[in-house]
Write a structure and sequence with these properties.
Blueprint lengths: L6 H16 L4 E2 L6 E2 L2 E4 L18 E11 L4 E12 L7 H17 L8 E9 L8 E12 L14
Parallel strand pairs: 3-4
Antiparallel strand pairs: 1-2, 4-5, 5-7, 6-7
Length: 162
């Protein structure tokens, strides 16, 4: 797969990077009796089906979502959200799985800040566990700023215009 340096390529590179990071988790899913590692999804979860008809279960998952990019004279950056969603009916400790997943991703990104091609994770890396949760689904978020290629202006400027 060639890299065209677009936000879509960035999201795809993040998915490729994160999938092996979360592959060894074995977490409770939102389907009774099924444990699995988080599925890594770009964009948004597909339409919801009743739990028993989900194959594979929707939760746990990691969602990678492009938010925006900003171009400046000094360089260009993109903002990306990463959402770790886990399932637990434990009201006291259910949050721990979501935080564990997002922390493992953050640690892996901090160790290898280049994602391949032109994409580089910038500091700060922000993680959060929102106060309000969708019990029994638990979510933790990460906000990434990623340096992306700066497009060079073609041609020159007009001289002797006046």
């Amino acid at each position: 797969m060639s890299i065209n340096m677009t936000p879509i390529d960035l999201v795809d590179k993040l998915k490729e990077f994160i999938a092996p990071v979360v592959a060894n988790f074995e977490l409770q899913s939102n389907v009774t009796g099924i444990k699995k590692s988080p599925e890594v999804i770009t964009g948004y979860l597909p339409d919801k089906k009743p739990g028993a008809r989900q194959d594979p279960p929707d939760i746990p998952c990691v969602i990678i979502r492009y938010i925006e990019d900003i171009d400046t004279e000094e360089g260009d950056t993109a903002k990306v959200y990463i959402v770790a969603a886990t399932y637990s009916e434990d009201e006291q400790d259910g949050w721990r799985d979501a935080v564990n997943v997002i922390t493992r991703i953050k640690d892996a990104l901090a160790k290898q800040r280049f994602l391949g091609g032109p994409f580089r994770i910038e500091y700060p890396i922000k993680t959060e566990l929102p106060e309000e949760q969708l019990y029994p689904v638990w979510v933790a978020f990460m906000t990434l700023t990623v340096a992306i290629p700066h497009i060079q202006e073609e041609g020159g400027y007009l001289k002797d215009v006046f």
